[in-house]
Description:
Elements: H1 9-12, E1 20-24, H2 34-41, E2 45-49, H3 52-61, E3 68-72, H4 79-91, E4 98-102, E5 118-121, H5 126-136
Parallel strand pairs: 1-2, 1-3, 3-4, 4-5
Amino acid sequence: MQFFRQNESDVSAIVGWGVRVMILTSAEEVTQSKAAVRIAGLGGQVEIENEAFSALDTLILDDTGYGLLVIECDSFGGLAAGRNLVSMLHKGGVSLPVILVSSDCTEQEFPYEGNAPVVLRAPISAVSLRVGFEHAMRDRLVFQAA
């Protein structure tokens, strides 16, 4: 039996393929947030939001087409505050993949439940963000047929 593995770097490198991502952070610009820069590198269309309740308002009241929410929790009160924001989002009737990034995280979480957020340790590494991004977007990934 023979196995062939093709390395198509332009096909396998970009996993975000233009998904619209809201990042809730204290950073003023995309270039100031490691998560924002790395998600943009994965192909995501990143938009920064600095106000937690404004972000929730946008996601709950508007059909904006966001595919992912990333919360840098240290800017907003830690991991517990990030989980509280996700709970408010779900109570508002929004089902959206969420990644929480926090220095309070002792063990990274990649849950099986669709509504549970992926939790990553800060400072975020490129590898953990890519794995977390792919895990959060697992139901929305379209695999290319060989």
